[in-house]
Specification:
Length: 328
């Protein structure tokens, strides 16, 4: 169960705009909820529907306890219709069935709501059929179109909707989402530092590539600390075969940046900001090898390496030069 106060922590601007629409009695006939996966679009749609139908609403806040709230929460309210892709797309027949439903009187009131999940996946025929629906709005009808790709929505549909732009999740909220998805706290913290996109974070975690990338960063630090003369060998035989693409190498350098930032945070006693939270012991050992000045210089060298990768300098040459800097 999510309240408006909960959602304001995740999507403050969108939540406040929707709450204000109740205060001013200006609920739009159609909204376009646009934002990346995991930013709260579905949760806010459900909460908004509760606010519309709840007979015990306090301002904009539904009671969450009445029959209407329970049925909306479970997806069984007769006047709240959810349309989701059938296979890879939303088809014209699905929109036609929705239109037919709306010719009937509401089961419990004259108000009806429909939520189109993945609206960018509508076929051309489905989009055109929905457009006709939106061209003749009823005051008793509210549409919510949910999309991760607003540019794929017809301009004529976009122009008939009030756009609600969902912002990427704050790292703390993304961490919580990732833990809810079954990801360990240590990996969740690292992934939330690497990207603010839930879908991308989940994709990273599904791949052994990410787990191995993290392992290689730790191994590189250990080699630099304990066997610096073998560092170039490690780069050529371990690091480069894993980070084959330039984008992958950029991710690897990002992970390396987090390590050196963690060393500074640990030195300053800011352990709550540490990303590699399970590597504190290694950090303490590494602090004997790198002074704070060394760490700052190392971070500068890594950022310079990232810039060179973007400029298409040969990746192996970039990493060899970086390794020589880190060995100093």
């Amino acid at each position: 169960m999510q309240t408006w106060n909960d959602m304001k922590q995740i999507q403050p601007l969108v939540s406040q705009m929707l709450v204000n629409s109740f205060k001013k009695d200006r609920i739009s006939h159609a909204y376009l909820f646009q934002g990346s996966r995991g930013t709260g679009k579905r949760e806010i749609s459900k909460l908004f529907a509760k606010s519309i139908f709840c007979p015990n609403r306090d301002g904009a806040e539904p009671c969450h306890a009445c029959n209407a709230c329970h049925r909306i929460e479970s997806g069984n309210h007769p006047d709240v219709h959810w349309i989701e892709p059938d296979g890879m797309s939303i088809k014209k027949d699905q929109i036609l069935r929705l239109q037919k439903e709306f010719t009937y009187t509401g089961m419990e009131s004259n108000r009806k709501i429909y939520v189109v999940v993945g609206a960018d996946k509508m076929t051309a025929n489905a989009s055109n059929r929905l457009l006709k629906f939106l061209e003749e709005p009823s005051r008793q009808t509210t549409a919510m179109l949910l999309t991760e790709n607003g540019q794929a929505i017809l301009d004529t549909i976009r122009s008939r909707c009030q756009l609600m732009a969902f912002q990427p999740l704050h790292s703390v909220h993304l961490e919580e989402k990732l833990v809810e998805e079954g990801i360990s706290e240590s990996n969740a913290k690292l992934l939330a530092s690497l990207t603010n996109n839930l879908a991308e974070a989940l994709e990273f975690d599904e791949e052994n590539w990410f787990a191995n990338a993290r392992k290689l960063v730790i191994q590189l630090i250990e080699v630099l600390q304990n066997k610096p003369n073998e560092a170039l060998l490690f780069i050529n035989h371990q690091w480069m075969p894993h980070f084959k693409e330039r984008e992958q190498l950029q991710r690897g350098l990002d992970l390396l940046i987090f390590w050196f930032k963690d060393m500074i945070n640990h030195d300053l006693g800011r352990d709550e900001a540490i990303v590699y939270i399970q590597e504190i012991d290694r950090m303490e050992q590494a602090s004997m090898r790198w002074s704070r000045q060394n760490i700052v210089e190392s971070l500068t060298s890594i950022l310079e390496a990232k810039r060179k990768i973007n400029q298409n300098v040969h990746p192996t040459l970039v990493m060899e030069q970086l390794t020589l800097h880190l060995k100093r």
